[in-house]
Specification:
The protein is built from 4 helices and no strands. By secondary structure, the protein is mainly α. The chain starts with a helix and ends with a helix.
């Protein structure tokens, strides 16, 4: 697999882990439920490790495939959209047109960030 593609795959995996650790943190009820708390800590550390790993990947000239600003923006955007989805499924949160429009704008921003970097 091409290293640049691998960097993006690692970033996507880290981004998918983010809403999961946030959910585990909530389920731990302020760390009263130790299993959920431990899962949250392990997952947040894994998420940050993967973020650092993909940002640290460079080409033969030492140039990062994904810069830290772009990587974090994508991680936060996918994480935010993911937690909105989890909120709907687990907590029956209402999805209004406005909320969905803003989540859609997050995805447009993520796609735009990727396309702008390819130029």
């Amino acid at each position: 697999m091409d290293e640049e593609i691998l960097a993006w795959v690692v970033l996507i995996v880290a981004s998918c882990i983010e809403p999961i650790w946030v959910t585990c943190l909530d389920m731990s009820e302020n760390f009263k439920k130790k299993g959920w708390g431990i899962a949250a800590v392990v997952l947040v550390l894994l998420c940050l490790y993967l973020l650092a790993y993909c940002v640290g990947m460079t080409d033969e000239n030492g140039v990062n495939y994904i810069g830290p600003g772009v990587a974090y923006a994508i991680l936060a955007g996918i994480g935010a959209a993911g937690i909105v989805a989890i909120g709907r499924v687990l907590y029956k949160e209402k999805l209004t047109f406005r909320r969905m429009a803003f989540v859609f704008m997050i995805f447009i921003g993520i796609i735009g960030t990727r396309l702008a970097g390819a130029m």
